[in-house]
Amino acid sequence: MKQPCHSLPFGHRNNYLIIFDDVFIPRERVFMDGEAEFAGRLVEYFVAHHRAAGGSCKAGLADVILGASALLADANGALKASYVQDRLAEIARHAEVMYATGLAAMVKGWRHPSGAYIPDARLANVAKLEAVEHLKEAVAVAADIAGGIAVNAPSAKDLAIPGLGQKVAEAVRANEAYTAEDRLRAARLVQLWTAGPHLVGLVQGGGPPATQWAYLRADLGSRLDDLMRRAAELVGVRRGGTA
Predict the structure, then answer these.
(1) Any idea what the Cα angle at residue 63 is, between residues 144 and 180, rounded to 5°?
(2) Contact 118/112 with Cβ under 8 angstroms?
(3) C-alpha distances in Å from residue 98, one per residue of 7, 59, 60, 88, 200
(4) Calpha distance 120→112 (Å, rounded)
(5) Residues in a beta bridge with 111
């Protein structure tokens, strides 16, 4: 099974602000000392790992979204509907595309003279962009499958209110195989993915899409002349002139 990079179904991920103030770093922990010419390459190697892994880990998140969507659809009494089945298959497709791009970046990687293995930078940046686009679509599909209960469900605490709890339970229960609390719990899980903090984390994690586009534009610029030359040869065109 593909492993999600972060998944806390009934709570929010912990986020931290770390301030470095008068920090002592032991000499053996220093990676570079004044070697500024290598800083850009170090960042490139880091983001290649981060973005390649990001494509695959987001596929794991899509699998969680798929399971959550199916669970709520079943609690809603709509799991077997053909439309729902098609939409679940769509989430699965998005997951596999993300997984494939991340995997490709790793498989097409190379071994650095130091012995470290570096994912293919071009494919890693593509993997991050694909993860953003496909997980956004998976989230939208999950919202479609879930129905309004994913965002307007009452609290499970309402079920315990004397004189009101039973009426709430009767109003929110759908599939008799699930209790009212079961359905509310399933709805909250889908709510976490469709209306929670994950989308912003997806877009910004590993650098916003603008940074991936910047890399791909620079990479294309280094290859474009050769690609144009090959196209010209295919059709007998002289570059910048007549055939």
Answers:
(1) 55
(2) yes
(3) 17, 5, 9, 16, 17
(4) 12
(5) 117
103: helix, coil or strand?
helix
Residue whose C-alpha is closest to residue 103's, from 88, 123, 83:
123
Contacts of 224 (CB under 8 A, 6+ apart): none
- pTM here? 0.79
Cβ(153)–Cβ(187) below 8 Å? yes
Rg (CA), the chain: 24
Asked if 216 and 126 touch (Cβ cutoff 8 Å), the reply is yes
- Tens digit of pLDDT for each residue in 13-71? 556 788 988 899 999 999 888 888 988 888 889 889 998 988 888 899 999 999 999 99
DSSP string, 162-199: TTTHHHHHHHH--STTS-HHHHHHHHHHHHHHHHSSHH
Distance of alpha carbon 186 from alpha carbon 104, whole angstroms:
34
Asked if the structure places residue 25 within a domain, the reply is: no
Type of residue numbered 139: V
- Residue 67: which CATH number? 1.20.140.10
Residue 108, phi then psi, degrees to nearest 5: -90, 15
| Domain enclosing residue 59, as ranges | 34-207
